[in-house]
Amino acid sequence: MNDKTLLMIPGPTPVPESVLLEMAKPPIPHRSSEFSKIFDEVNEDLKWLFQTKNDVFIFASSGTGAMEAAISNLVNPEDKVLSLVIGNFGERWAKIAESHGAIAERITVPYGEAIDPDVLRKRLDEDINKEIKIVTLTQSETSTGAVNDVKALCEIIRAHGAISVVDGVTSVGAMDIRPDEWGIDVLVSGSQKGFMIPPGLAFLTANERAFDVHKKCKYPGFYFNWSSYKKSLAQHTTPYTPAINLIVALHRTLKMLREEGLENIFARHKSNAMLLRNSLREIGLKLFVEDDNKASFAVTSVYPPDGVSVSDIRKILKDDYDIIVTNGQNDLKDKIFRIGTLGYISERDILTVVAAIENTIKKLK
Ligand SMILES: Cc1ncc(COP(=O)(O)O)c(C=O)c1O
Is a pLDDT exceeding 90 seen at residue 186? Predict the structure, then answer.
């Protein structure tokens, strides 16, 4: 049977039908009062979802674009960046920093684990000359399914004085994250995740401390320059042609999310992820991140049972049930598979995927 695909990956995530229909309408001109009205509402709703009083800039790019925009607007060549790496996306921060001429130092942990706040505190205490300018970290590490304690880590970074730059790509709109309250200086995310729309928009919010550093940045670049987005936003528009139909779609999903309420959104993600985790344990599967307190509610990584390959599980799920789950990345390829519970996913979807996995394993054994 066609056209009944259940996308259970950590992005892109399913898009509600009403939103797809909204997107199918012809684009409206972006230099118009009609667009500005939608854009203003989107900006207000984004501040609500990001739990910040600061502007949230919207770029026409994937999430990595916002990561690049975070680094390019802050670093000067030879600046020291400390990257807290718990998986591929944490490593991406270090690579981006190096590509902008910064010197990246990494604190790494075995994949599946999170950063120990005491280890970070110790490293920053050693930095008596305050050479470390920026610390990058990831909340929900999509490559492993582990989460960092962003609140604890950002408190330590603030006490040192460096700028904290946080990847909230698979956590904003799914798990609690409070930039203003927790002292996060820069936070980024992407549209194909908790926002329930297709890929193509990236988001970035930066506070005054970050803007002070940005003002001293010698080569902030052109397309992603924060100052241009800030200036245009005050004029109810964007510096360049925005991804109009995606913003129209976002306008609708943000209303849906507002109606649900932040507490309920976070509770839904937690209960869906826990239902999935406990059901997988019940059918005898081992989770890559065993400790529920260190697990992302956006993505769950699972070991295949002995003698069964990840590729066979994914193939049967796709061919027989039209359900898509994803493989591990890099070193974890074929060692784990990952199931997304992010965005427009319901309890029914969780029950369906667990039953399909159970049947798949029976077929393969
Ligand atoms: C945690 C995390 N950070 C960054 C990215 C990169 O986003 P994109 O693929 O949209 O560039 C992803 C994408 O999956 C992600 O999950």
Answer: yes
How many whole angstroms separate alpha carbon 49 and alpha carbon 176?
10
DSSP single-letter state for residue 332: G
Q: State percent of the chain over pLDDT 70.
A: 100
pLDDT for 297: 98
Domains (range + CATH), the chain: 6-12+261-364 (3.90.1150.10), 17-258 (3.40.640.10)
Q: Measure 285 CA to ligand 1 centroid, in angstroms.
A: 26
Nearest C-alpha to atom 7 of ligand 1 is from which residue? 63
Q: In whole angstroms, what is the distance from residue 208 CA to residue 71 CA?
A: 16
The minimum-distance atom of ligand 1 relative to the CA of 11 is 14
Answer positive or negative: Cα dihedral of 138, 142, 144, 149: positive
Query: Of 41, 39, 70, 44, which Cα lies nearest the Cα of 55?
Result: 44
Global confidence as pTM: 0.98
Angle at 262 between CA 208 and CA 64, to 5 degrees: 55
Taking the centre of ligand 1 as the mean of its atom positions, its distance from the CA of residue 322, in whole angstroms, is 24
Number of the ligand 1 atom closest to the C-alpha atom of 143: 16
Is 48:195 a contact under the CB 8 Å cutoff? no
Ligand 1 centre and the CA of 360: distance in Å?
Answer: 29
Pocket (CB within 6 angstroms of ligand 1)? 10-11, 62-64, 89, 138, 142, 167, 169-170, 190, 199
Q: What is the pLDDT of residues 211-223, one digit of tens each?
A: 999 999 999 999 9
Going by CA atoms, what residue is nearest to atom 16 of ligand 1? Answer: 142
Strand order in the sheet with 56-60: 56-60, 201-206, 186-190, 163-167, 132-138, 80-85, 103-108
Query: How remote is the CA of residue 196 from the centroid of ligand 1, in Å?
Result: 15
Burial grade of 234 (CB within 10 A; 0-12, 13-18, 19 or more) = exposed
Q: For residue 1, what pLDDT band results from cuts at 50, 70 and 90? A: low
pLDDT score recorded for residue 309: 98
Residue 284, by phi and psi: left (phi above 0), alpha (psi -120 to 50) or beta? left
